[in-house]
Amino acid sequence: MTQQQPVAVLGGGSFGTAVANLLAENGHQVRQWMRDPDQAEAIRTNRENPRYLKGIKILEAVTPVTDLLATLQGSELIFVALPSSALRSVLAPHAQLLAGKMLVSLTKGIEAQTFKLMSEILTDIAPQSRIGVLSGPNLAREIAEHALTATVVASEDEALCQCVQKALHGRTFRVYASADRFGVELGGALKNVYAIIAGMAVALGMGENTKSMLITRALAEMTRFAVSQGANPMTFLGLAGVGDLIVTCSSPKSRNYQVGFALGEGLSLEEAVSRLGEVAEGVNTLKVLKVKAQELGVYMPLVAGLHAILFEGRTLNQVIELLMRGEPKTDVDFISISGFN
After folding, report:
1. Could you tell me if 281 and 257 are in contact, meaning their C-beta atoms sit under 8 angstroms apart?
2. Residues with Cβ < 8 Å from 201, sequence gap 6 or more?
3. Which of 59, 197, 245, 252 has the highest CB neighbour count under 10 A?
4. What contacts 21, CB < 8 A, 6 or more positions away?
5. Is 191 a catalytic residue?
6. What is the greatest pairwise CA distance in the chain?
7. Cβ–Cβ < 8 Å for 97, 69
8. In what helix (H) or strand (E) does residue 286 lie, and over which residues does it extend?
9. How far apart are CA 288 and CA 307, in angstroms?
10. Which residues lie below 8 Å from residue 340, measured CB to CB, with a gap of 6+?
């Protein structure tokens, strides 16, 4: 990638827009592709993304575009911020253009039909491309407002990691690297489920001890599942695991937390998602994760409980009561208890 060549960002949502601005601040020309020509025109005219990041100035170096073919042809570094449900259908028709290019997924989700993560879909579509993921405690509005933030770029391709670090690293945005692409990406996808539970707990007035218990047991649960799939448990002690889980389960700015909070206020799932106005990946992830955990025999009581709340008519109080009645096990699954007295 040369300094003169534009960097592409695919997607007109809040996180894609925030990343596009970061790249522009670091001196890159950015082509931000979006499907909606009205949205692109609004950004060109007003230098603001009114649908997703109202009040944030979009820098002049960010050019909103609607020609996907030209965008892919003109860039070697491409950040993919498409909804999980759309990623395959948008990029598959242009697979031949992606060979050898660096594709970095910003999307935290799982494909419903295949249980594949976004980087695995990118591998399916473009096996000759160079693939990485970006994940961490990264609320889009805070990034756009220059709150001090850190993230993780993960890939087996060390040169790709270094390229992304150079492109994004700035005075308010720190980029760490990891070789555990699968663990980093799975952490980013799974935490969305638990943010819904956390939002519900807050809306229902549950105590700080309860919220802490939910977050901590969520970390144990998602790590247990990830390790069963081959991830490194230590990855979940970093930004893409506990870091992302804390912010997503604690902040009213989190989309999945907002959905959970609305549910706790008494709204239906459809009403909660409609009020949000953006994709809440946790709802889609929950459905496929519940099935996969049962298939693999992985113990995930919070996932089963939230599924029961959203789709089986249970309440959060009932789920927590069942959790409290469960058999106590070790606090951390991956620490030996052989030396305990």
Report:
1. no
2. 210, 211, 214, 260, 264, 316
3. 197
4. 56, 58, 59, 62, 144
5. yes
6. 69
7. yes
8. helix 281-296
9. 10
10. none
pLDDT band for 7, please (50, 70, 90 cuts). Answer: very high
pLDDT digits 0-9 by tens, 75-125? 999 999 998 889 999 999 999 999 999 999 999 889 988 999 999 999 999
Which amino acid type is present at position 31? R
Catalytic member of 101, 108, 191, 290? 191
Bridge partners (DSSP) listed for residue 80: 10, 105
Say what the pTM is: 0.89
What share of the chain in percent tops pLDDT 90? 79
Rg (the chain; Cα; Å): 20
Q: Which percentage of the chain shows pLDDT scores above 70?
A: 94
203: its two tokens: 């809306």
The letter for the amino acid at 7 is: V
Indicate the residue type of 256: N
Distance CA 251, CA 195 (A): 9
Give the tokens for residue 66. Answer: 């609607």
Q: Per-residue pLDDT for 336 more than 70?
A: no
Q: Is the pLDDT of residue 153 over 50?
A: yes
Residue 105 contacts by C-beta under 8 Å, 6 or more apart in sequence? 80, 87, 118, 119, 122, 131, 132, 133, 134, 185
